[in-house]
């Protein structure tokens, strides 16, 4: 079935004793045992599994065309579970503009146990040159943050298969509706469900979806169940509720993202626009081939420096000046000041998450803020 249908029905498969049309929130932490000691209800203890989480994992497995999924309490814990599943001494190839929370995990939590190189993944020859004897994982993020770089998922998948490596892709900016990395050869897809999947800036969560049920996935599943960084039944309920409208929300985010990119590209106060839907974007052709649309995230360089950029984010009325992305409300953010003094992000860069307000109102707000 098509994503619109899957999104509405995949998380709603339980038949309850009260014949509910939508899956209710099940807060029970423990479940009754049968006389023979078994669990015919399918659940034993809610850290290991519970009906709402199982439903969420099933919905995301189907949307990402995978074989199984693990839901976590945040995007960060989802990514961390994957790093924890690697043997100590393993080497990872990660993007130079990797989501800063993951870069921080590698550089602080895993600095003594894992080795890693941060490289420009838009250059497949660069990746090949960095593969070592102990390399086990290529981690990609596409579109990337905040420069909206596009990584060729099929090309990296071919390379990782050739070298027997695991290939994981952070697909948060695309959501499961705009690209399916598993269909292009990735082994694992990661999402921060805090973003588009949740879509209303009110629930924190993360997800890993696997292409195959194998030994490595068993390790990840064990880290989820035994480590216990799991979302609550209420979080899972909210995410299932949000997923039902995800395909339609994504259409609005993409339409508004494209319209803002075209408006900003022509604006005299703007030096540059980063949006994969623009034909001037360096990886526009790859984006066209692996994404069904280009998303609601864009970045701009304001003419001038940090001061001019900060003036713009302080002058908007409708956009909320806040970090994060993927919600129904439009957000705007001066990235360098959140990433700290060591960042390579240009000082005049502003990141925009196009929400679902009317495009005329969004353009009018940016127009007044830029003048
Ligand atoms: C937000 C984000 C994460 C981390 O997710 P949290 O839910 O904040 O822990 C990871 N990757 C990308 C691309 C993100 O935008």
From TrEMBL:
Matches recorded under Pfam families: Cys_Met_Meta_PP (PF01053)
Q: Which is one GO molecular function term here?
A: transaminase activity
- Mark the residues carrying the PTM N6-(pyridoxal phosphate)lysine: 195
GO BP terms: cysteine biosynthetic process via cystathionine; transsulfuration
**Is the keyword Ribonucleoprotein assigned to this protein?**
no
Q: Which residues form the signal peptide?
A: none
Look up the record and name the cofactor or cofactors this protein needs: pyridoxal 5'-phosphate
Question: Which keywords annotate this record?
Answer: Aminotransferase, Pyridoxal phosphate, Transferase
Could you state one GO cellular component term attached to this entry? Answer: cytoplasm
- Which PANTHER family has this protein been placed in? CYSTATHIONINE GAMMA-LYASE, TRANS-SULFURATION ENZYME FAMILY MEMBER
**Family designation:** Belongs to the trans-sulfuration enzymes family.
The protein depicted here goes by the name Aminotransferase class V-fold PLP-dependent enzyme
Organism of this sequence = Pedobacter psychroterrae
């Amino acid at each position: 079935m098509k994503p619109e249908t899957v999104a509405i029905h995949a998380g709603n498969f339980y038949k309850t004793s009260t014949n509910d049309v939508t899956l209710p929130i099940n807060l029970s932490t423990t479940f009754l045992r049968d006389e023979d000691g078994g669990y015919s209800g399918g659940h034993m203890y809610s850290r290991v599994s519970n009906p709402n989480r199982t439903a969420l994992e099933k919905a995301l497995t189907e949307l990402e065309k995978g074989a199984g999924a693990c839901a976590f309490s945040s995007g960060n814990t989802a990514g961390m579970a994957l790093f924890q599943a690697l043997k100590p001494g393993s080497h990872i190839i990660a993007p130079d503009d990797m989501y800063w929370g993951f870069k921080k995990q590698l550089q602080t939590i895993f600095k003594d146990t894992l080795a890693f190189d941060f490289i420009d993944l838009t250059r497949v020859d660069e990746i090949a040159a960095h593969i070592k004897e102990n390399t086990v994982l290529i981690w990609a993020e596409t579109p990337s943050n905040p420069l909206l770089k596009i990584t060729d998922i099929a090309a990296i998948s071919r390379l990782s298969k050739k070298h027997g490596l695991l290939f994981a892709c952070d697909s948060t900016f695309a959501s499961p509706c705009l690209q399916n990395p598993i269909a292009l050869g990735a082994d694992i897809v990661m999402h921060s469900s805090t973003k588009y999947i949740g879509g209303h800036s009110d629930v924190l969560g993360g997800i890993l979806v696997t292409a195959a049920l194998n030994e490595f996935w068993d390790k990840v599943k064990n880290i989820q169940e035994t480590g216990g960084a799991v979302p609550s039944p209420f979080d899972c309920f909210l995410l299932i509720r949000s997923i039902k409208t995800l395909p339609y929300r994504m259409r609005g985010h993409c339409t508004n993202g494209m319209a803002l990119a075209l408006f900003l590209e022509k604006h005299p106060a703007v030096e540059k626009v980063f949006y994969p839907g623009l034909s001037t974007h360096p990886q526009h052709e790859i984006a066209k081939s692996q994404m069904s649309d280009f998303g609601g995230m864009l970045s701009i360089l304001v003419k001038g420096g940090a001061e001019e950029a900060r003036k713009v984010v302080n002058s908007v009325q409708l956009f909320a000046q806040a970090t994060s992305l993927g919600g129904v409300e439009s957000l705007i953010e001066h990235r360098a000041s959140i990433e700290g003094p060591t960042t390579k992000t240009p000082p005049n860069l502003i990141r925009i998450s196009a929400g679902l307000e009317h495009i005329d109102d969004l353009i009018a707000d940016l127009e007044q803020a830029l003048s």
